[in-house]
Amino acid sequence: MISLTEQWKKHQPLVKVDWENIVINIGREIEHPMQEVHLIENVDILQYTTAWLLRVKEIKFSAWDKPEVSFPISELKPGTYKAQAKCNLHWTWDDDFTI
Ligand SMILES: [Fe+2]
Questions:
Q1: CB 85 within 8 Å of CB 93
Q2: Fewest CB atoms within 10 A around its CB: which of 8, 15, 51, 94?
Q3: What separation in Å is there between the alpha carbon of 2 and the centre of ligand 1?
Q4: Residue boundaries of the structural domains of the chain
């Protein structure tokens, strides 16, 4: 059985924000596998509001994609967000970021 630490290393999104782009890699120390039987299915970008988390962007993946995504920072308004990655076998994992 794989430990939670091992799961964290390959599932936890890592969000990097610079002046132009937001870059999200799944996972932290180990790139998540992308196979038809085991893959990251999607990454949702959720914005914190006063009452709830509002999904503002969804990026879908196939087994042929790398488990990473980048998009222009101009697509999001200033605020605090959660990047939530969904593995088809190992639940969802997230990381917060602010722009
Ligand atoms: Fe997984």
A1: yes
A2: 51
A3: 11
A4: 4-98
Running DSSP on this structure, what letter comes out for residue 31?
P
Q: Which of 66, 68, 95, 83 is nearest to 8 (CA)?
A: 95
39-96 confidence digits (pLDDT tens): 999 999 999 999 999 999 999 999 999 999 999 999 999 999 999 999 999 999 999 9
Ligand 1 center to residue 50 CA distance, Å? 32
Q: What's the CATH fold of domain 4-98?
A: Immunoglobulin-like (2.60.40)
Task: Say how many Å lie between the CA of residue 78 and the centre of ligand 1.
Answer: 31
Tell me the pLDDT band of 1, cut-offs 50, 70 and 90.
low
Ligand 1 center from residue 89 Cα (angstroms): 5
Distance 87 CA to ligand 1 centre (A): 5
CA of 51 to the centre of ligand 1 (A): 30
